[in-house]
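quick q for whoever's on today - can somebody do inverse folding on this one?? i tried earlier but teh output was garbage lol. tokens:
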């Protein structure tokens, strides 16, 4: 299910066009505001999965993204976004978050997706 949505919204090459932006979150939701100002919000209660998406576009382009998946369009956040590290700490609090998958993703230089958490 998530693969169809992901591939339809983000065909190869489209992810690399995202730049930094800002992340904010509280106990209810996470928001991402890209530089163009079109903020997106996802309630934690709607979160279904967390993926790390890597591309072969680095090191001179954004090549690592956090994909927060729900039944709607994914919230895609570049690793270079402001407060990305703080968001990672919050995601690691999700029960069963796979830190090993995250570590493997950080070493990837290929176009790949790594599932780090899925709601059960």
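ok took a stab at it. sequence:
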């Amino acid at each position: 299910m998530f693969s169809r949505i992901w591939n339809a919204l983000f065909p190869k090459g489209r992810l690399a066009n995202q730049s930094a932006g800002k992340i904010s979150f509280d106990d209810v939701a996470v928001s991402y505001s890209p530089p163009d100002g079109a903020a997106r919000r996802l309630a934690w209660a709607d979160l279904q999965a967390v993926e790390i998406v890597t591309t072969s576009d680095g090191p001179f382009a954004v090549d690592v993204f956090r994909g927060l998946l729900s039944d709607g369009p994914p919230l895609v956040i570049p690793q270079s976004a402001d407060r990305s590290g703080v968001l990672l700490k919050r995601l690691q609090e999700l029960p069963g978050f796979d830190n090993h998958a995250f570590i493997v993703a950080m070493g990837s230089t290929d176009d790949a997706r790594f599932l780090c958490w899925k709601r059960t």
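fwiw The chain has three helices and seven strands. also The helical segments are 2-9, 84-91, 99-106. so keep that in mind when u check it
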